[in-house]
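Format notes (please read before filing issues)

Several people have asked whether sequences and structure tokens are stored in separate files. They are not. Every record keeps both together, in the order shown below: the sequence lines, then the token lines. Line labels are part of the format and must not be stripped during preprocessing.
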Amino acid sequence: MKKTLKKLTLFMAIALTLIFSNGLVAKAEGDYDLDPIIEIQAHVQDRGWMGWQHNGVMVGTTGQGLRMEAIQIRLKAPYTNDKNLHIQYRVHVQNKGWMPWVKDGGTAGTVGEALRIEAIQIKVVDNNGNLRSDYRVGYYAHVQNIGWTGSGYDGQTVGTVGQELRMEAICIGVEKIK
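Then the structure lines:
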């Protein structure tokens, strides 16, 4: 069990590095701030809400065949002081399709309906819903029969639509571009 946990932790660290190796983390001048900007929690089949995690930490489960049913993402202080900064997201839910956009800790998905999240889109926006160019969000998911997906950025779809596959876990990273 400890060996598996160590392997998973190492995998997550490497995967996060790969997410942001698209020129973001690799900049030598320190152009980007990797503070823990957000917190995330997932509502998982038979587990309920699993507790808040920060930037870059996996939420959900892998290897247990459990579906994510809902997710909440919120900004952490001091980022909550910027009244023109919001984390906005929506999910594609079994039998319902794309749900409305929610932001700043709102619940995306369903609770108590036993429906799976199949895909997600996440972005950092201003008060008018416009993408903020001074922040970047990257994310990838663990999906039934697929494993870890490729990365999505700034509102791109991660997961599957129309394939009836459950999203089981997600890892999200947000960074401020200096």
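For reference, the curators noted about this record: Residues 85 and 176 are 11 Å apart (CA to CA). The longest helix spans residues 2-20.
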